[in-house]
Design goal:
Elements (H helix, E strand, L loop, with lengths): L1 H23 L6 E4 L6 E5 L5 H11 L1
Antiparallel strand pairs: 1-2
The structure holds zinc ion.
The site of zinc ion has 8 residues, from helix 2.
Length: 62
């Protein structure tokens, strides 16, 4: 069934493209300071938020 193979190749191409794009994203450099969400001191704030707060925000979005 050639149709099924075409779809599989398409999906695999899309996946590869997405993986490459994700790998290209620069890793944000964290800064030390106080988290603006939980006000805990963190050595690695990104966007003003500590890692647990970023995790929580991401989970909420999904
Ligand atoms: Zn926090």
């Amino acid at each position: 069934m050639p149709d099924n193979i075409d779809v599989a190749v398409e999906i695999s191409d899309l996946h590869l493209e997405r993986s490459i794009r994700a790998a290209r994203q620069p890793v944000p450099v964290g800064v030390a300071g106080e988290c603006e969400t939980c006000f805990e001191d963190s050595k690695r704030l990104i966007g003003g938020r500590c890692a647990p707060c970023r995790d929580r925000a991401q989970k909420r979005r999904r």
